[in-house]
Each structure stands twice: as structure tokens, then as C-alpha cells.
Write a structure and sequence with these properties.
Elements: E1 8-10, E2 20-22, E3 35-41, E4 44-49, E5 57-58, E6 60-66, E7 70-77, E8 92-100, H1 107-111, E9 115-123, E10 131-138, E11 172-181, E12 193-201, E13 220-223, E14 241-248, H2 249-259, E15 265-266, E16 272-273, E17 282-289
Parallel strand pairs: 4-5, 14-15
Antiparallel strand pairs: 1-2, 3-4, 3-10, 6-7, 7-8, 8-9, 10-17, 11-12, 11-16, 12-13, 14-17
Length: about 290
């Protein structure tokens, strides 16, 4: 079944300038469930969701279509002077689509807790362009309560004998690079193994926390890149798809801004609290070259 623990909303009409947060977000608590996305065209980077690297240009969101099972966002990316480094017109349109396979006639697809995030780039200009995209989530989505540094008092939690086992005051996030078995959801055979990164609460205590501020603090969130050519990321050319597991959000985003790649690595400080500042906030990130 679909869990409200992982529902993230955009609090605004334009994703580059709006925060993304858990549905129970209270603006007074200063506590984000951060989802990030960026694009890079001919070496220039743009924010698509949130602002992981200060000072980067926001993409121009030109359209949004909200349907029953999908939300499609369309962006226009071009240098301020309208040209790329070679002087030719550069105008890239990127479509980012979020899809949930809520198909009543296919009960298995309906039950799979999978959300598809699809990127498609179209060159509307007269010159070839290099396009890279990045998408990721941070540990904030996996922790029910703000850490003490935010100055917010934790909300209600289980009491009595179970209280000592609850994790409402534990903000350690754990992460791991792993493999998952493909299936119909990935368009491949069920015995295929796909590279993936997962992130979750370091202490897995199911059904422990109570209240609206409860997020996905048990279970794991997986990020699985799937290329259009094949369900196997290894079939892409070297460097086309990278997974950074547990890396500091801003540090990895800055690497993407500079290199167009978050790097294939796993952070060694594991687990660690999510509230270490953006440079060290644990995140799982995927970057890919679209052309």
C-alpha cells in the first residue's frame, strides 16, 4: 500500500524556488524533507528542485501538468546571453516527470512502493549540447523529529516500556550501496540485478513513533538509476551514470556543478546524524549524462 510517510509536497508553484517537504510540514519547525535536482548544460548548472548549491541559477519552469498518477514539470535552460561557448544558440528543454504506477487492473504494480522519476532532454537550439542531470534525497526524509540544534521540541512518541526503544531523539542516518532485483517495474527480467543506493534510519523500530510528524523512520528508501537503453546501468558508457551513497549533499552537488558528475563513492562516516549542515548532510544522489 502507499505510505504517507514518504509523501513529499512542493510548497509553491515553481520547484526551483520552493521547498520540498513532508506533507505534515509546519513552517515554524524549520525542518525540511529535502529532495534535490539539478541540470547542467554545456558546463553551466541550474537548480530544478531546491537550492543545494548557493548562487546557482534557477531553471525557468515553463509548464507543469498535474494528473492523477503523474506530475510533469518542464524547464527551459539556456545561458543568459542565449549562446553556448561556441557562439551557437543553446536552448535545452528538460522534462522531469514523477509517476506512481497506480493501475487498478494490475494489483502488483499498484502495490509496488515505486515512484518513477524520469528525465528527458530536448535540444531546441542549433548546436549540440552536453546535458547532465542529478537527483537525490537526504536523510531528513527518514527522521521523524528535528534535531536539538533546531530548537524544536520533539513531538509525541510511544510511552511506557517501549519508550526507550523509540528513535524520536535519535537522528543517525545509515546508508549503503547495494543491488536490487529488477522486475516489471524496471522493464527488465526479474533476475537482473541493478545498482542502487539506500538510505534509512540507523535504528529500525517499526510502529514506534506517533503523530503527524512521523516520517519514514523505519524501512529504507532506495534510489535505482535505470537507463533508457537497458535496465543495467553497467551497459552505459563509463561515467554516464554515477551513484554517490551517503555523500555530503552540498559537497556532492558542488562536484556536479564543476564536473557534471557526483562520483561513484560511498562515504565512510556511516551512520551519522542528518543535521551536520549541508556540506555533510547524508544523501543518496544519482547523476547521469543525457547527451
Amino acid at each position: 500500500m502507499r505510505s504517507p510517510l514518504f509523501q513529499v509536497w512542493t510548497f509553491g508553484r515553481s520547484t526551483p524556488s520552493s521547498i520540498q517537504n513532508h506533507w505534515s510540514f509546519n513552517p515554524d519547525n524549520g525542518f525540511n524533507a529535502r529532495t534535490v535536482a539539478m541540470a547542467r548544460v554545456n558546463g553551466k548548472s541550474y537548480n530544478l528542485i531546491a537550492d543545494p548549491v548557493a548562487g546557482q541559477m534557477d531553471a525557468e519552469q515553463v509548464a507543469v501538468v498535474v494528473g492523477a498518477t503523474r506530475t510533469e514539470l518542464q524547464y527551459s535552460l539556456q545561458p543568459a546571453d542565449g549562446t553556448n561557448e561556441s557562439g551557437a544558440l543553446a536552448n535545452i528543454q528538460i522534462n522531469m516527470t514523477f509517476t506512481s504506477a497506480l493501475i487498478p487492473s494490475d494489483i502488483q504494480a499498484y502495490m509496488d512502493p515505486v515512484v518513477y522519476v524520469t528525465f528527458h532532454a530536448t535540444n531546441m537550439g542549433s548546436q549540440a549540447a552536453d546535458v547532465e542531470v542529478m537527483f537525490g534525497v537526504t536523510g531528513e526524509l527518514l527522521v521523524s523529529q528535528p534535531a536539538p540544534e533546531t530548537g524544536v521540541t520533539p513531538g509525541p512518541h510511544a510511552t511506557g516500556a517501549r519508550e526507550s526503544a523509540c528513535n524520536d531523539t535519535d537522528w543517525d542516518v545509515s546508508f549503503q550501496e547495494t543491488e536490487v532485483q529488477a522486475g516489471a517495474w524496471a522493464g527488465g527480467a526479474s533476475n537482473e540485478l541493478l545498482r542502487a543506493a539506500r538510505i534509512g534510519h540507523a535504528r529500525q523500530n517499526p510502529l514506534c513513533s506517533l503523530g503527524d510528524l512521523t516520517k519514514g523512520n523505519w524501512g529504507w528508501q532506495y534510489l535505482v538509476p535505470v537507463t533508457s537503453e537497458s535496465t543495467k546501468t553497467s551497459s552505459a558508457a563509463p561515467g554516464d551514470v554515477s551513484i554517490c551513497t551517503g555523500c555530503g549533499l552540498r559537497t556532492s552537488a558542488e562536484a556536479f556543478v564543476t564536473l557534471g558528475d557526483v562520483g561513484n563513492t560511498t562515504d565512510l562516516e556511516n551512520p551519522r546524524p542528518f543535521n551536520q549542515g549541508l556540506n555533510r548532510e547524508p544523501a543518496v544522489l544519482v547523476s547521469a549524462k543525457l547527451g
